[in-house]
Amino acid sequence: MLDADLIIIGAGPAGMSAARRAAEAELSVLLLDEQPAPGGQIYRDVDRASAARGDILGKDFTVGKTLTKALGHERITHVKGAVVWQIEDGNRVAFTQDGKAALATGQRILLATGALERPMPVPGWTLPGVMTAGSAQILLKQSGITCARAALVGSGPLLYLVAAQMVRAGVPPLALIETQTKSDLTRSLRHFGGALRGWPYLLKGLRMLVALRRASIPRYVGATHIAIEGDQYAQGVAFRIGNTKHRIACDTVLLHHGVIPNTQAARSIDVPHRWDDVQSCFAPECDEWGRTAVATVFIAGDGAGIGGAKAAAYAGEISALEIARDLNKMTEMARDSTARNLRRNLASERAARPFIDSAYPPYAGALKPADDTIICRCEEVSAGDIRRMAGLGCLGPNQTKSFGRSGMGPCQGRYCGLSVTQILSDANNISPSETGYYRIRPPLKPITLGEIATMVKSETIEVRK
């Protein structure tokens, strides 16, 4: 069994920055991550991709190399390709690497599992040729592949970023079909004064919009009645602007309407969660240091609430400081002194979020999908099925498993969970908070009996002390 002062799950910005800060405080750090290279989704494969495609992906991507370089610290053991499938007793982690299972113990655990793109269930969203905008970006980062004849659909800054990167790659999108409305923008203006403290975000967004305009990318704003057309694969997107119907023929549809915290690991160990009305999602309850109700477990980064890569990095460091103090490697005075500037930077990074969240809300048509729209794509359960379950007395997502197997496929509710909560909440006229979410049980990721059978004392991994 591996043993470390701190186990960090996830090598994105929060996990990497926390690892470095904890190691500098003389903690031994075991960093477990599924990917073969550090960076998480935002800095995915940055060490290799930035050299080949840095001009396309931009400076905000290549800056991730600073974090990956810091993992070379002598007290950090980075285990790549490690799939965490169980957390026990707040200090023991089971994971699989190269088809073999292993156990690790840590005095503290930091969950830095990041965010998920919010699924956008609209008619036709399960057709081949449809994926998320974030997936398209991962293709570009990791493989240098850009989707041709693609339409971007949804709302949020990521759509602009992906579109701008496609333009720079020489494969511009056919169109942006955006769901936010002028009313959303008007409502968001009350946050504009505060957002000015995060002016770099606003300037970046403005520059992307100018670049898209110069590239003559058509933008349709205020789209409703979105449906992806095609019998065997996506062949076009139909939508309305006001009462006017539109259709754009395309080969690929890239959907996006925001990101949400990845809460599966935290939920599996009964960390309490709250409903976030602004982002229409659940988020774990943490204090200002990232500490949860499970005394040995901390959460940092987008997994605790969406703030972006730089905010995640600052939050990771702040959690590491408190963990170091907790383990008597740092005084309270030293912790507070170092955290002061980090908190100031974190507040600046988060300043624009209220404006962005208000200006780019989730697409209403996907929050209240039509009855024939698939919600749980693993088990092919539709929105109408969920509503019929509510009519039979089903009050919460866990009961839908008995009624119709939703959430019981390989993704274990990652993609349908919020939709099921929202549909049941509306159908039963009960708040999302009271409706609740799936109870997440191990294994967090699929694992074979053969892999479990290999769980022996590791002979190949030695945690640096």
The class by helix and strand makeup works out as alpha/beta
Q: In terms of quaternary structure, what is this?
A: single chain
Please outline the major beta sheet: 7 strands, mixed
Q: Whole-number average pLDDT?
A: 94
Q: Name the shape in a single word.
A: globular
Secondary structure topology:
Elements lengths: L1 E8 L3 H12 L4 E4 L13 H12 L1 H4 L2 H5 L6 E4 L3 E6 L3 E6 L2 E12 L3 E3 L12 E3 H11 L6 E6 L1 H12 L6 E4 L3 H7 L3 H4 L3 H16 L4 E3 L1 E7 L6 E6 L2 E6 L2 E6 L1 E3 L2 H5 L4 E4 L4 E4 L12 E3 L9 H18 L5 H19 L2 H7 L4 H4 L6 E3 L4 E2 H9 L5 H8 L12 H12 L3 H4 L13 H5 L12
Parallel strand pairs: 1-2, 1-6, 2-3, 6-19, 8-15, 9-10, 9-15, 10-11
Antiparallel strand pairs: 4-5, 5-6, 7-16, 12-13, 13-14, 17-18, 20-21
Helix pairs in contact: 1-11, 2-5, 5-6, 6-9, 7-13, 11-12, 15-17
Could you walk me through the main structural features you see in this protein, from its secondary elements to its overall organization?
This protein is an alpha/beta fold. It contains 19 helices and 21 strands. The chain has helices spanning 13-24, 46-57, 59-62, 65-69, 133-143, 157-168, 182-188, 192-195, 199-214, 264-268, 309-326, 332-350, 353-359, 364-367, 383-391, 397-404, 417-428, 432-435, 449-453, and strands at 2-9, 29-32, 76-79, 83-88, 92-97, 100-111, 115-117, 130-132, 150-155, 175-178, 219-221, 223-229, 236-241, 244-249, 252-257, 259-261, 273-276, 281-284, 297-299, 374-376, 381-382. Strands 1, 2, 3, 4, 5, 6 and 19 form a 7-stranded mixed beta sheet that branches. Strands 8-15-9-10-11 form a 5-stranded parallel beta sheet. Strand 1, helix 1 (13-24) and strand 2 form a beta-alpha-beta unit. Helix 5 (133-143) packs parallel to helix 6. The radius of gyration is 22 Å and the shape is globular. The model has no long low-confidence stretch (mean pLDDT 94).
